[in-house]
Predict the structure.
Amino acid sequence: MPPMNEATQRKALGLLSLCRRAGRLTTGMEATLEKAQKGEAFLVLLAEDLSPRSAARLRQGLPEQLPVRSLPCTMQTFSTVTGKNSGILAVCDENFAGGIRAYLSDDEEDLDR
């Protein structure tokens, strides 16, 4: 699959927006860790400009089997979609998570441990 182009990025962000409106998107470090520990998160997405320290702290608290992906989007882009300023998103619906992963190319950094 080719790297995420602008049209594909818009589609993935559109799914994130639908996920938010459905109440199945969580933003922020603590809320994401809480959902992950409860087994309610199916995919964690990180903004490309999230600090390495924050990403490392997040990964330490997540279950091994939970996929973590870095999107070629900034925190400002995430903010536009979610209405909250955060570089960490948790998708809490299996179908939305699968749909978003389908748009991610092999070139997007897979941070699975």
